[in-house]
Amino acid sequence: MPVRVNDLLLRARPFTPLLLAAAVIGAALTRGLGLSLLVLAGGMLLYAIGSLWASVQSLGDDAALSLDEALALAAPSAEEEKKRSVLRALKDLEYERNVGKIGEADYLELSTRYREEARRLLRELNDAELPARARVEKLLARRLGGAARPPPRQAPPESEPEGADTELDSDTETAGDTESERAPEASGKPTCTECDTENDPDARFCKKCGEALG
Amino acid sequence: MWQTLPELGTGIIYAVLVAAAYTFAVAIAAGRGRPRLLDAARFGGYATCALIGLGTVLLAYAFITHDFRIRYVARYSDRSMPTAYLFASLWGGQDGSLLWWAALLAGYTSACLRWMKGRYRQLQPYVIATLMSIVAFFAVLMLFAANPFSTSMAGASLDGEGLNPLLQNYWMAIHPPALYLGFVGCAVPFSFAIAALVTGRLDNDWVIAVRKWMLFAWLFLSIGNALGMIWAYEELGWGGYWAWDPVENAACLPWFTASAYVHSTMIQERRNMLKVWNVVLICVTFLLTIFGTFLTRSGLIASVHSFAQSNIGIFFVYYMGFVIAVAAGLIAWRWRELRSEGRIEAVASREAAFVLNNWVLVGIMTFVTVATLWPKISEWLYKESVTVGPPFFNRWIAPAGVLLFLLMGVAPLFGWRKTSEASLKRAFAWPLGAAAVMLVLHLALGSRLGYPAWVHTDQFYPGVVGTILQKLGSILPMVVIALAAFNTAVIVQEFARGVAARQRSSDKAGDRESWYASLIRLVDKSRRRYGGYIVHFGIVLMFIGFTGKAWSIDKEATMAPGDQVGLGDYTLTYKGSRMEVDVNKRMVFADVEVTRGGRSLGVMSPAKFIYKRSAEMPTTEVAMHRSFRDDLYLVVGMVSPESKKASFQLHVNPLVSWIWLGVVVLIFGSTVSLWPEMALREMGAWGYVRTAAAGLSAIAFAVWLGMSPSTAYASAREGRPPPTHRAPPTWGDLPLGGAGAALFGGMGLAAVAIRRRRAER
Fold first, then answer.
1. Which of A 74-133 lie inside 8 A of B, CB atoms?
2. Where are the domains of chain B?
3. CB 3.0–4.6 Å: which of B165, B188, B324, B350 could bond B611 by disulfide?
């Protein structure tokens, strides 16, 4: 098929539902509901044929997967799943403390337990990535002619990996940086010098802006 | 007339079967190590959906053009039917309703394919394969048991038989489609569950993926059942809205399990628990939709809703057996991966409350299933068919329903994992106080207001069980009203706590929000939670409405013109009867003047309609006076043409309008929960799709406006004759149709243009 016609068809594709709708309306207004249904049927038949043709053409496609496609095939590891669920638990705890569903003592006990678990999982995930990172560094070094690269950085245990929250509801946003009005202020909570956010006692980086805490 | 239309229609169904089989095969190949074939499977899926749409449009064309060669068209339509009813006849009978089911499944499949796009690539092949297998089943059904395009042996008749007069009302246009949307929607979560089991991808990705699909299906199951209730209440004339008819029961069974799922899925997402339970719930929900379809069509249990008996039941039995075997086999295969390490840490926890809630819902579902099938079970066990009726259901379901109502209020008060004693006391204080105050008020003022706290009920069973049920039945209305206050207080408290937490947060940030800004943002940030609370409030209103039955007043009276009868606060004076005739029917009205407390409420005219085509089946036209307090519901039976004496059934149904109000609130709450929270990257594509869909819908609405200036209506109550089938629009109709099309088409195109400009920015 000539390239220009193919281009035109590709550009027109998003508008085909509207074009079909316009044809259906036009037929309905000029010749009646019967013809409009036939026009609609014709459009559907053409779409079915086109889709089947595209499907058959794709059967022989052996092109390599793109990076996005390959990533979409990847499955989270068991540790990744556990990490998400533990981080979710921490968010829920924070929310429930702020709305008064859980007492301070219970909150501290559960929160400490989950934070330890989250740290352990983050360390495990990070350690599991180290060999792959080292391989990537070697490949890069070879590619770039052996230029010196810094050693792989260890991710801080408390930091949340990117995308950790994408599948999580944001229903604990109300927790934010608040403390329960019923709970006495816990001692030793570092305040961020950049954004004045009060952080947890064992935090090394601010949970709001990411600045390193002194 | 299009000579080959019936053959083409049948050919299209064959093509659907072939396309579905092809897509199934390609999808399986894509899942087994050839991911590039996924695109081929997706295109195949789209093609299959388009073919089903084509078949549906062709059947609609056959109705519009009165192609009475096709048996289905001749059976369910005639030349005098308005256009809207001709379209509604698509699902008026068995054959067409199967095609309609397939059409909705095609719609869901297309939407699911579009939504999945580049995501869930490991699950997609098996999701597509499962959906195609369901399509193939319905294609097989249509080809071998109920072909909507089959022709009459005797050839085309001059006119069709027409739709059952009971179905010629606007409810026919909305109730079946809404209920089918709910039924068919359960196929998507089921497909994801099968895909997760086959691939072993039993992480929470698929659970999060199906969450909104299941909620959408649940919403339409709720709407469909509610519309059925309203239809029965307004049209059938027996004074109630739910008769525990087998088909009604079959429609609500998947609602119970879907309700259980939308709660227990939260436990899996947060605690990685109940994986087996959730998978089983999804499979059972889908199975119940097939079972419901089977019950409606097989004639297994007699029902007012049943389609004509046919041999189609055996196909459903085999298919249900196949689904059970596959699902059970896959669950058993993946049992080890499904087992979770988590456990319920405390009884006073939300997980424990949700588990209890699930048990009650599944228990009610099991009870209703067994009771519905009891005629067949008893025949098998005792060689005697025993049918159980509404009193049996009402007596047993009521306590279970009240337990569910209690759990609905209690569960939000608990925290996840654990709730401390002090927190529990704080959480329960206000709701218990509200319940106590309501109880006292009810005891003190109930009788004076016409809603006594204690209601006499008959003993249904002899012995201890009967006595317990009778005593329970007597106090349940009081308990429900108190629980309604409890639940309402819980919901208000949850919102208040959330707003207070937000305001503390904003105070700390030095940017104090107003309370309504906090409320809006609170709901916006936590749509599922607070949308759920709004749904709960809708259910509170519905429970209040259901409880009104305890105080209903029912009376039968035969009156001559001038006679008066009292009914609660109402005084009814029978003025006399009159007859009107139109092209389709004779209408016998009985005029009754109504006063309440000396104040005239006007004249109500219950009627009997005797259709010419089915004179042996006169329909009952109810006259109703609605208020939030109660509905005055009048039904006329026989009217003597000589003496003008008329027999009446008179009902005062308290609080029924609260049920419908509750449904509206439920729909609003579900919409809030369903409102998308999408990543920015997805917003563009989805925005375009949604806007295009909105534009198309607007244009389709414009077509409908332009082409059908006489809208469908229930009956000629106002004395207006129904329109006969109209000739196609002429140029004279162009201004109205064109104006409508231009207005809505312009809105649709403007929406598309605005979306494209935003995407470019």
1. 75-76, 81-82, 84-85, 88-89, 92-93, 95-96, 98-103, 105-106, 110
2. 1-166, 169-340, 400-525, 551-656, 678-713+733-761
3. B165
